[in-house]
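Colleagues,

For the teaching module next term, I've prepared a clean inverse folding example: a structure given as C-alpha coordinates, and then the sequence designed for it. I'd like students to try predicting residues themselves before seeing the answer, so please don't circulate the second half yet.
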Protein backbone atom coordinates (compact mmCIF):
# COMPACT_ATOMS: atom_id res chain seq x y z
CA UNK A 1 0.00 0.00 0.00
CA UNK A 2 2.87 2.34 0.78
CA UNK A 3 4.26 1.81 -2.73
CA UNK A 4 0.85 2.56 -4.21
CA UNK A 5 0.65 5.77 -2.18
CA UNK A 6 4.06 6.91 -3.39
CA UNK A 7 3.09 6.16 -6.99
CA UNK A 8 -0.18 8.08 -6.62
CA UNK A 9 1.61 11.07 -5.10
CA UNK A 10 4.09 11.02 -7.97
CA UNK A 11 1.32 10.94 -10.58
CA UNK A 12 -0.58 13.77 -8.90
CA UNK A 13 2.58 15.83 -8.59
CA UNK A 14 3.42 15.28 -12.26
CA UNK A 15 -0.12 16.29 -13.26
CA UNK A 16 0.16 19.45 -11.16
CA UNK A 17 3.40 20.42 -12.90
CA UNK A 18 1.91 19.68 -16.33
CA UNK A 19 -1.15 21.80 -15.59
CA UNK A 20 1.06 24.65 -14.37
CA UNK A 21 3.12 24.47 -17.56
CA UNK A 22 -0.05 24.42 -19.67
CA UNK A 23 -1.43 27.45 -17.83
CA UNK A 24 1.81 29.35 -18.43
CA UNK A 25 1.55 28.45 -22.11
CA UNK A 26 -1.98 29.86 -22.17
CA UNK A 27 -1.00 33.26 -20.79
CA UNK A 28 -1.82 36.10 -23.17
CA UNK A 29 -0.66 39.70 -23.47
CA UNK A 30 -1.66 42.89 -25.28
CA UNK A 31 0.86 45.11 -27.03
CA UNK A 32 1.03 48.00 -29.49
CA UNK A 33 3.06 48.24 -32.69
CA UNK A 34 4.02 51.63 -34.18
CA UNK A 35 5.20 51.74 -37.79
CA UNK A 36 7.12 54.72 -39.21
CA UNK A 37 9.18 55.45 -42.31
CA UNK A 38 12.91 56.03 -41.93
CA UNK A 39 13.91 59.68 -42.04
CA UNK A 40 16.03 59.13 -45.17
CA UNK A 41 13.30 57.28 -47.08
CA UNK A 42 12.20 58.66 -50.48
CA UNK A 43 8.49 59.40 -51.05
CA UNK A 44 6.46 56.24 -51.50
CA UNK A 45 4.89 57.53 -54.71
CA UNK A 46 3.39 60.58 -56.42
CA UNK A 47 -0.38 60.85 -56.92
CA UNK A 48 -1.31 60.06 -60.51
CA UNK A 49 -4.03 62.06 -62.27
CA UNK A 50 -6.23 60.42 -64.87
CA UNK A 51 -8.24 62.13 -67.59
CA UNK A 52 -11.47 60.16 -67.62
CA UNK A 53 -12.10 58.59 -71.03
CA UNK A 54 -15.01 56.34 -70.12
CA UNK A 55 -18.21 57.45 -68.33
CA UNK A 56 -17.15 61.01 -67.39
CA UNK A 57 -20.81 61.86 -66.74
CA UNK A 58 -20.66 59.60 -63.67
CA UNK A 59 -16.96 59.44 -62.79
CA UNK A 60 -16.07 63.10 -63.46
CA UNK A 61 -13.69 64.67 -65.99
CA UNK A 62 -10.54 63.86 -64.04
CA UNK A 63 -9.70 61.51 -61.20
CA UNK A 64 -6.64 61.41 -58.98
CA UNK A 65 -5.23 58.22 -57.62
CA UNK A 66 -4.92 58.54 -53.86
CA UNK A 67 -1.73 56.78 -52.79
CA UNK A 68 -1.71 58.52 -49.39
CA UNK A 69 1.96 59.58 -49.58
CA UNK A 70 3.87 59.42 -46.32
CA UNK A 71 6.55 61.77 -45.12
CA UNK A 72 9.96 60.38 -44.26
CA UNK A 73 10.21 59.84 -40.53
CA UNK A 74 6.45 60.03 -40.09
CA UNK A 75 3.81 57.46 -39.10
CA UNK A 76 2.86 54.89 -41.74
CA UNK A 77 -0.89 54.50 -41.62
CA UNK A 78 -2.86 51.94 -43.60
CA UNK A 79 -0.32 49.18 -42.94
CA UNK A 80 -1.61 45.65 -42.38
CA UNK A 81 0.27 43.63 -39.77
CA UNK A 82 -0.17 39.98 -38.88
CA UNK A 83 1.68 37.41 -36.84
CA UNK A 84 3.04 34.16 -38.22
CA UNK A 85 3.73 31.15 -36.04
CA UNK A 86 1.95 28.43 -34.11
CA UNK A 87 -1.51 30.03 -34.31
CA UNK A 88 -4.73 28.09 -34.64
CA UNK A 89 -6.69 29.28 -37.70
CA UNK A 90 -10.49 29.52 -37.57
CA UNK A 91 -12.38 26.46 -38.75
CA UNK A 92 -13.51 26.56 -42.36
CA UNK A 93 -17.10 27.75 -42.74
CA UNK A 94 -17.20 28.69 -39.04
CA UNK A 95 -17.74 32.40 -39.80
CA UNK A 96 -21.25 33.47 -40.74
CA UNK A 97 -22.38 36.71 -42.29
CA UNK A 98 -21.55 38.46 -45.55
CA UNK A 99 -19.07 41.28 -46.12
CA UNK A 100 -20.05 44.10 -48.48
CA UNK A 101 -18.00 45.85 -51.15
CA UNK A 102 -19.78 48.56 -53.16
CA UNK A 103 -18.95 50.51 -56.30
CA UNK A 104 -20.12 54.08 -55.80
CA UNK A 105 -19.25 56.99 -58.12
CA UNK A 106 -16.51 54.92 -59.77
CA UNK A 107 -14.76 54.05 -56.51
CA UNK A 108 -14.59 50.90 -54.42
CA UNK A 109 -16.04 51.25 -50.92
CA UNK A 110 -14.27 50.30 -48.73
CA UNK A 111 -10.76 50.52 -50.12
CA UNK A 112 -9.69 47.65 -47.86
CA UNK A 113 -11.89 44.76 -46.80
CA UNK A 114 -11.12 42.07 -44.20
CA UNK A 115 -12.74 38.65 -44.66
CA UNK A 116 -12.32 35.13 -43.33
CA UNK A 117 -11.44 32.25 -45.68
CA UNK A 118 -14.60 31.11 -47.43
CA UNK A 119 -16.70 34.00 -46.15
CA UNK A 120 -19.18 35.41 -48.68
CA UNK A 121 -18.40 38.81 -50.21
CA UNK A 122 -21.32 40.69 -51.74
CA UNK A 123 -20.34 43.17 -54.49
CA UNK A 124 -22.92 45.83 -55.35
CA UNK A 125 -22.83 48.28 -58.27
CA UNK A 126 -24.59 51.49 -57.21
CA UNK A 127 -23.63 53.37 -60.39
CA UNK A 128 -25.90 53.76 -63.45
CA UNK A 129 -23.07 52.45 -65.67
CA UNK A 130 -21.40 49.15 -66.46
CA UNK A 131 -18.33 48.08 -64.46
CA UNK A 132 -15.93 45.23 -65.19
CA UNK A 133 -13.68 44.20 -62.30
CA UNK A 134 -10.81 41.78 -61.76
CA UNK A 135 -10.00 40.08 -58.46
CA UNK A 136 -6.42 38.86 -58.66
CA UNK A 137 -4.33 37.02 -56.10
CA UNK A 138 -1.65 34.36 -56.10
CA UNK A 139 -3.29 31.61 -54.04
CA UNK A 140 -6.94 32.14 -55.01
CA UNK A 141 -8.09 31.64 -58.59
CA UNK A 142 -8.56 34.90 -60.50
CA UNK A 143 -12.10 36.19 -60.94
CA UNK A 144 -13.59 38.55 -63.54
CA UNK A 145 -17.04 39.97 -62.99
CA UNK A 146 -19.08 42.22 -65.29
CA UNK A 147 -21.49 44.30 -63.23
CA UNK A 148 -24.51 45.80 -65.02
CA UNK A 149 -25.79 49.24 -63.97
CA UNK A 150 -27.27 49.32 -60.48
CA UNK A 151 -26.67 45.59 -60.00
CA UNK A 152 -28.25 44.43 -56.78
CA UNK A 153 -25.39 42.08 -55.90
CA UNK A 154 -23.02 39.35 -57.00
CA UNK A 155 -21.46 37.05 -54.42
CA UNK A 156 -17.92 35.69 -54.40
CA UNK A 157 -15.70 34.03 -51.82
CA UNK A 158 -11.97 33.50 -51.44
CA UNK A 159 -10.73 30.38 -49.70
CA UNK A 160 -6.99 30.97 -49.22
CA UNK A 161 -5.44 33.57 -46.86
CA UNK A 162 -3.66 36.34 -48.80
CA UNK A 163 -4.01 39.97 -49.89
CA UNK A 164 -5.98 40.20 -53.14
CA UNK A 165 -6.14 43.22 -55.45
CA UNK A 166 -9.46 44.34 -56.93
CA UNK A 167 -9.15 46.50 -60.07
CA UNK A 168 -11.28 47.83 -62.91
CA UNK A 169 -10.88 47.08 -66.63
CA UNK A 170 -12.55 50.36 -67.60
CA UNK A 171 -11.47 52.85 -64.93
CA UNK A 172 -7.72 52.59 -64.14
CA UNK A 173 -7.78 54.61 -60.90
CA UNK A 174 -10.19 52.17 -59.25
CA UNK A 175 -8.39 49.85 -56.87
CA UNK A 176 -9.23 48.08 -53.66
CA UNK A 177 -7.79 45.20 -51.61
CA UNK A 178 -9.28 42.22 -49.85
CA UNK A 179 -7.28 40.70 -46.99
CA UNK A 180 -8.30 37.09 -46.45
CA UNK A 181 -7.15 36.85 -42.86
CA UNK A 182 -5.29 33.71 -41.76
CA UNK A 183 -6.32 34.01 -38.08
CA UNK A 184 -7.37 36.57 -35.48
CA UNK A 185 -3.91 38.05 -34.79
CA UNK A 186 -3.79 40.92 -37.28
CA UNK A 187 -4.08 44.70 -37.20
CA UNK A 188 -4.28 47.86 -39.31
CA UNK A 189 -2.30 50.98 -38.41
CA UNK A 190 -4.22 54.18 -37.75
CA UNK A 191 -3.22 57.78 -38.61
CA UNK A 192 -0.56 57.63 -35.89
CA UNK A 193 0.92 54.48 -37.42
CA UNK A 194 -0.31 52.38 -34.47
CA UNK A 195 -2.00 48.99 -34.30
CA UNK A 196 -2.87 47.00 -31.18
CA UNK A 197 -2.66 43.23 -30.79
CA UNK A 198 -4.86 41.76 -28.08
CA UNK A 199 -4.79 38.41 -26.29
CA UNK A 200 -1.61 37.20 -27.97
CA UNK A 201 -0.30 33.94 -26.48
CA UNK A 202 3.25 34.19 -25.21
CA UNK A 203 5.78 32.64 -27.53
CA UNK A 204 7.86 33.30 -30.63
CA UNK A 205 6.40 34.68 -33.87
CA UNK A 206 7.29 36.41 -37.11
CA UNK A 207 5.78 39.84 -37.78
CA UNK A 208 4.55 40.45 -41.34
CA UNK A 209 3.75 43.90 -42.74
CA UNK A 210 2.06 45.00 -45.98
CA UNK A 211 1.36 48.46 -47.37
CA UNK A 212 -0.40 49.23 -50.69
CA UNK A 213 2.49 51.42 -51.88
CA UNK A 214 5.46 49.72 -50.26
CA UNK A 215 4.46 46.07 -50.63
CA UNK A 216 5.30 43.21 -48.28
CA UNK A 217 8.07 42.83 -45.76
CA UNK A 218 8.79 40.52 -42.86
CA UNK A 219 10.44 42.07 -39.86
CA UNK A 220 13.85 40.41 -39.48
CA UNK A 221 14.42 38.23 -36.47
CA UNK A 222 11.89 36.54 -34.19
CA UNK A 223 9.23 38.48 -32.30
CA UNK A 224 9.29 37.17 -28.73
CA UNK A 225 6.02 37.88 -26.94
CA UNK A 226 6.34 37.81 -23.15
CA UNK A 227 4.86 39.42 -20.03
CA UNK A 228 7.04 42.53 -20.24
CA UNK A 229 6.12 43.36 -23.83
CA UNK A 230 4.12 46.56 -24.22
CA UNK A 231 5.29 48.58 -27.23
CA UNK A 232 7.15 47.70 -30.40
CA UNK A 233 8.47 50.24 -32.93
CA UNK A 234 9.15 49.32 -36.57
CA UNK A 235 10.97 51.56 -39.06
CA UNK A 236 10.14 50.85 -42.69
CA UNK A 237 13.12 51.53 -45.00
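(Answer key — instructors only)
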Amino acid sequence: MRGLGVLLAYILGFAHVALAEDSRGMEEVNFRVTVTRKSQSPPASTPQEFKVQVDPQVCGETRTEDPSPHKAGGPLHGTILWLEGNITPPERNSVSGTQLMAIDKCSFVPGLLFVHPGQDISIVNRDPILHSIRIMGQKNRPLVRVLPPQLKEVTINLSEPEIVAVTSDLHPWMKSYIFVIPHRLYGLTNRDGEATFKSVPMGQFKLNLWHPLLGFRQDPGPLVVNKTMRDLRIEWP
